[in-house]
Write a structure and sequence with these properties.
Blueprint: H1 2-8, H2 16-40, H3 148-160, H4 166-175, E1 184-187, H5 194-204, E2 209-214, H6 222-233, E3 236-241, E4 244-248, H7 286-298, E5 301-304, H8 314-321, E6 327-331, H9 337-350, E7 354-357, E8 362-366, H10 395-430
Parallel strand pairs: 1-2, 5-6
Antiparallel strand pairs: 2-4, 3-4, 6-8, 7-8
């Protein structure tokens, strides 16, 4: 009952003191909010600010256009000088698969330098970048320096220094074996290219010798590969086993004084050379040429060439076969057309012989009408010989023992002949 009476009563009116207390608390809250704003200095974004209505709509602001993206290019040589190399030889794409003595009859493209425009101080002739005299205006007018060979020889001697001993050579060869290191350089169908010279010098920064593996077309003439490697890198081949080579850099070699080798940015198109297979073979009529081509394709194959194989024994094999056969056929199925054409061109120069046809992926060669076998033939060097003809250590004893065995066999055969002749004399005397 008492609670019901109290709830029915009206609340008492606010007094003057209570109203003053409420006003003072609201004023203190406003003062605290202004203090926070002064402390944090908050400014509302433009979208929340009250904007005064203007006379008209504002024009849209113009965006600044970005400059077009320009990717970096190696052909932009605005502030870069052309590289100048003092190497005393002509720059070619391939040093083993091209010969300066054979002149092309035309070019397949304009004379664009594969080094890039303005990157090299030498002018590209479409085939090579010759090391010409500085005073010459163009590469065609300037003649080749007659002292280039002497310069190369002097540079090679200064880099090589004293020759290696047998023990040092064995240690370097052992370090370059496959089970010791995986660092090596492959020489394929293009042979020793210009950019490979830079790769060889990069390998020589970490090791004194580098292993080189030769495969395919260049292995037909390994003597030329060894010569070009030593001539262009100023190194020395200290070991060879088939297509495996070990190239030594030299005692006085310094990676800080390595020669400047500008890189080719692309592979140039090969120039146009005269045809290898002519309509008629020289000295024969058209009918005789057709009959010889038909007969050559029917001859049993001398050998079958594997792709990216080692062809070092092909030239002596063809020379031996020409002693008994007039036509030789080599099976090249599976090889690229350009590969077996290069092999045929090498056989023509090394055997020598006459090319008959390349039909049906076959190489058919003819020994010629007045064929005379070569007497002083230098066969490819064995695995235990250096390019200079000197034998490696430990091989002299083996060869001397072989020669002694042969001498013993020959002397024993002579004794047998003497014994047989004496027995025949005894029988005749008895009769």
């Amino acid at each position: 009952m008492i609670l019901a009476k109290l709830s029915r009563q009206k609340p008492p009116p606010l007094s003057l003191s209570s109203t003053r207390h409420l006003l003072s608390t609201s004023a203190s809250a406003a003062a605290s909010s202004s203090r926070l704003r002064s402390l944090y200095a908050f400014e509302p974004p433009p979208s929340l600010r009250p904007q005064s209505p203007g006379p008209g709509p504002r024009p849209p602001a113009k965006k600044k256009t970005k400059p077009p993206y320009r990717p970096p290019s190696s052909l932009d040589r605005t502030k870069i000088k052309a590289a100048r190399s003092d190497l005393p030889f002509d720059f070619r794409f391939s040093y083993t698969e091209s010969s300066p003595s054979v002149r092309p009859i035309g070019l397949r493209e304009p004379k664009y330098s594969p080094f890039g425009p303005g990157r090299v101080s030498r002018e590209w002739t479409g085939v090579c970048a010759p090391a010409v005299d500085r005073k010459a205006r163009s590469a065609e007018e300037g003649a080749e320096d007659p002292k280039l060979e002497e310069k190369r020889k002097a540079m090679r001697e200064s880099v090589q220094g004293e020759p290696l001993t047998g023990a040092e050579r064995k240690i370097l060869v052992e370090r370059c074996q496959r089970h010791r290191t995986k660092r090596h350089i492959n020489i394929g169908r293009d042979g020793l290219t210009h950019n490979m010279l830079n790769d060889i010098h990069n390998h020589w920064r970490r090791a004194e010798a580098v292993r080189i593996k030769c495969m395919g077309v260049p292995t037909v003439d390994m003597k030329n590969v060894c010569f070009q490697l030593e001539d262009k890198t100023f190194g020395k081949i200290i070991h060879r086993h088939g297509g495996q080579l070990v190239l030594y850099r030299g005692r006085n070699y310094s990676s800080k004084r390595r020669p400047v080798i500008p890189l080719m940015l692309w592979k140039p198109h090969e120039p146009i050379y005269p045809r290898l297979i002519k309509t008629t073979i020289e000295g024969l009529s058209i009918e005789e040429t057709k009959g010889m081509r038909k007969k050559g394709l029917a001859v049993p194959a001398l050998t079958k060439l594997a792709k990216n194989g080692y062809y070092g024994s092909l030239v002596p094999m063809v020379r031996d076969a020409f002693l008994t056969n007039e036509l030789i056929r080599i099976d090249c199925r599976g090889l690229e057309k350009s590969d077996y054409k290069k092999i045929g061109c090498k056989l023509r120069d090394l055997v020598p012989c006459i090319l008959v046809t390349f039909d049906k992926e076959q190489i058919v060669v003819w020994r010629g009408q007045d064929y005379k076998p070569l007497e002083d033939v230098q066969f490819p060097m064995d695995w235990d010989e250096n390019p200079n003809g000197t034998l490696l250590d430990g091989i002299e004893d083996v060869r001397s023992s072989d020669s002694s065995i042969n001498e013993q066999w020959l002397s024993s055969s002579d004794d047998d002949e003497q014994w047989l002749s004496s027995s025949d004399d005894d029988e005749s005397s008895d009769s």
